[in-house]
Amino acid sequence: MAVFLTDDGSLSPAGIYLSFGLPLLLIENKARHFNGFLFYFGIILSVFCLVLFVLFRLKESRMGQKRLIRKDEPLSSIINKLSDHSESRDYVVQCIHALYMAINAEKIAHAKANDASAQKPPQNSKADSMLDLNIQQLISHCLEKHPNDDLIGNVCFGLMTAFATSKSFATAIVEEADTKGIDTHIKFMKRSLERSKNESETDEKSQVAAAELQRKGALMLGAIADQSIPLAVLLAKEDALAVVLDAMKWFKNDAPVVQWCIFALFNLCYDNTHNKCLLIEIGGIDVLVSAVGSFANGGGEIVRQGVGILFDLMRITPEIDYNKVRGAALAAGVLEVLAKIKEEGGLIERDENVKQMCDRLVESVSNTPIKVQGGIGGEGGGNGGLRKRLN
Question: Of 75, 80, 186, 210, which residue is least crowded by CB atoms under 10 Å?
Fold first, then answer.
């Protein structure tokens, strides 16, 4: 049977001939007048099918779409394949994608089954099962095996983001930072960004993949940082703030990249004095003001979250030199940007929270004396629930 069928069960060239040519030959051989018409017609039909077969195989091999993962394959089997074939690009992409789809399908099913607790991840979830199988180290291993492949980076970052809501993942990444390898992901983002800067002749497809990698990387870092302040501090110590700011500067005209970078910065720095001080030291205020100004006309989410993080940075605390922050904001042109936002008007009219934050920012950085009770936006300043409103 191996002569007539391929490995995946489709007809081989010999099988095609057996299916079309031979039956027609036998039919005609029994006919009263044998003139070969049906036989030759069968041969032509067989050749036509054979050509289609070859063309399909060529297209499949070029596009790399040979299916390596069976439908409904057990998670343990997929992870074993990923471990055994981590050097194969096709295996890594398909295995990681299958794991990602399994987590998402479970989340959707959980939400439909119990809308009241849709925001809570299910107990003993597939994400937890994968973590028990050391998927985190395996992802890091795949990134190390393919250090310059943005496609693999994209699928790995997507799976990491899906893990972010798992409590066991957050605990593991804090307690076992050295072995779980979150630094591998941040270094991967750095290398991709450096390639984008240095390869001036990179084709458009590669640039799109590089931008998407930074977007997903920022989304991943922001989702992880949202779990706890210690986790956000750990990420900052691994250069998460610096790599996100660098991506914002390089892809400054790419709205999705800028939006998710601001999301990451907000979650990394909100109510986190350590990370705020670090962000200020590495020039974060200048980058933030520039990004908000570039999208002041119509960049709803970018402006909303950008104003939110600037508002949070301007809160007076004993650990932060307020005059230094105020001077940096003025030098970056924050008053001009806020004036542009007010002039555009759309977001201010739709979102009262943004309007109030803009007014307080103008008041806090202008030369007029300000009355402070518990810091700008601090106690008595209306900052309660800011995180909930902006995320």
Answer: 80
Residues of the chain with confidence (pLDDT) below 70: 1-43, 46, 49, 53-54, 56-66, 110-112, 114-124, 126-128, 131-133, 167, 170-181, 200-202, 298-299, 345-349, 367-391
Say what the pLDDT of residue 221 is.
92
* Burial (CB count <10 Å: 0-12, 13-18, 19+), residue 330: middle
Cβ-Cβ contacts under 8 Å for 367 (sequence gap 6 or more): none
**C-alpha 176: how far from chain center:** 23
The pTM score is 0.74
Interhelix angle 300-313/273-281, nearest 10 degrees: 100
C-alpha span between 15 and 17 (Å, rounded): 5
Q: What is the DSSP letter of 11?
A: B
**pLDDT score for 207:** 86
> Which residues fall within 8 angstroms of residue 85, CB to CB, at 6 or more apart?
91, 92, 95
Token output for 370: 């300000």
List beta partners, residue 11: 5
Which residue stretches of 85-148 are H helix? Answer: 89-113, 126-132, 135-145
Q: Strand, coil or helix: what is 383?
A: coil
- Classified as helix, coil or strand, 340 is helix
CA-wise closest residue to 333 among 291, 276, 289: 289
Start-to-end CA distance of the chain, whole Å, equals 60
Tell me, what's the pLDDT at 42?
63
Cβ contact 313:269 at 8 Å: yes
Helix axes 300-313, 352-365, angle to 10 degrees: 40
Provide the token pair at 248.
């914002």
Angle in degrees, CA 246, 248, 253, rounded to 5: 135
For 320, phi then psi, to 5°, come to -110, 135
Tokens of 115: 């809308």
User: How far apart are the C-alpha atoms of 127 and 104, rounded to whole Å?
Assistant: 10
- Contact criterion met (CB below 8 Å) for 97 and 128: no
pLDDT at site 286? 93
Spatial neighbors of 232 by CB under 8 A, at least 6 apart, are 225, 267, 268, 269, 272, 275
